[in-house]
Design a protein that fits this description.
This protein has 10 helices and 17 strands. By secondary structure, the chain is an alpha+beta fold. Among the domains are: 91 residues, Translation factors (Elongation Factor Tu (Ef-tu), domain 3, Beta Barrel); 119 residues, Rossmann fold, CATH 3.40.50. The protein has a 7-stranded antiparallel β-sheet. A 6-stranded mixed β-sheet has the order 9-14-13-10-11-12, sandwiched between helices. The protein is globular. The model has no long low-confidence stretch (mean pLDDT 94). Bound molecules: FE2/S2 (inorganic) cluster. The site of FE2/S2 (inorganic) cluster (FES) has 12 residues, from loops.
């Protein structure tokens, strides 16, 4: 499968250590092939790498940030507000942005937790995230008053290209549970391009009221219902004419969304949350690998076509 798209390609984090080790995701020449197979527009990763004497870009570094507030918003689910530097705030606004977070006392990166960006207050440079207390890493974070944040990472959504190209179109968002935290950045991005956005929440999942409050401030049309028993409401909405669907939920939820969408119109663009296990976020550890058509893909950095992902990786 040629032409893989690395979310970091052409960014300040490219070329990375994967270029040096011969494992570049996007450049076939820097992954052991003899011919250029990429169709990247703009910067040539290969030439950039060679021109700079095979020097790789500086990796993301953990920065120490103060936790300002913690509030339990659902059983074992906490809203955390963290003071962050201005530059980082502006780099975390993209759909699918996430960070790696660990308590300041932890030296070892195995304590890093990947956490989606929920919202950013640009007046005071405060990042809001939501953490569910699940195990040692998250419990550690919830007891912490100062944390190391590494970021930005941006592959929290598959189908980012649709967010980039959609202008003045109709978008339907289906969301359930904690994945709803990805909606703020996604909706802000869609509104910037004059898209009309409607949001349906499946009310059988955990509720993140704060997300809904923020969306209401942007006058987003919101509906709540139990999707399982009311799929026809979704079908009816799709039949009215929708250009893109963003499904924010578990893999099972996203697959179900795809099946409903495809039963109406297979040409509707589909974006989904990336729910894979992420550990290093840099393409090194392999924790995030899935097999697509027999090929191993590092999902922390590789954009995968959502329908292909749902059909192949979840077989
Ligand atoms: S999370 Fe380590 S390679 Fe993707």
């Amino acid at each position: 499968m040629g032409n893989k798209i690395c979310v970091d390609a052409g960014s300040e984090y490219c070329p990375c250590h994967l270029a040096k080790s011969g494992d570049c995701i996007s450049c076939s020449l820097l992954s052991g092939k003899d011919l250029c197979e990429c169709n990247l527009k703009g910067i040539c990763i290969y030439q950039n790498f060679k021109k700079n004497n095979e020097k790789i870009s500086d990796a993301r570094e953990g920065i120490l940030c103060k936790v300002l507030k913690k509030k339990e918003i659902e059983t074992n689910v906490y809203l955390i507000s963290i003071s962050i530097p201005k530059y980082l705030a502006h780099e975390l606004i993209h759909p699918g942005s996430y960070i790696l977070l660990k308590d300041k006392k932890r030296k070892d990166d195995m304590f890093n937790s990947p956490i989606s960006v929920m919202n950013i207050d640009f007046k005071n440079y405060i990042l809001d995230i939501v953490i569910e207390s699940l195990g040692p890493k998250t419990k550690d974070l919830l007891n912490s008053d100062t944390v190391f944040i590494k970021g930005p990472y941006t592959n929290g959504i598959f189908g980012i290209k649709y967010f980039k190209k959609l202008k003045s179109k109709k978008v339907l968002i289906l969301a359930k549970g904690l994945s709803s935290v990805t909606l703020v950045n996604a909706v802000n991005n869609l509104l910037k391009n004059n898209n009309e956005v409607r949001v349906f929440f499946d009310n059988s999942g955990k509720k993140i009221q704060e997300v809904e409050k923020i969306l209401k401030e942007s006058n987003i049309d919101i509906k709540h219902f139990d999707f399982k028993n009311n799929e026809n409401i979704i079908r009816k909405e799709l039949k009215k004419g929708v250009d893109m669907v963003f499904s924010a939920g578990s893999n099972h939820f996203n697959k179900n969304t795809m099946n409903i969408v495809d039963s109406i119109d297979t040409t509707i663009s589909l974006a989904i949350t990336n729910n894979n296990l992420i550990c290093c976020g840099e393409g090194i550890c392999g924790a995030c690998i899935v097999k697509i058509k027999g090929e191993k893909m590092k999902t922390c950095k590789t954009q995968i076509e959502p329908r292909l992902y749902l059909k192949e990786a979840l077989k």
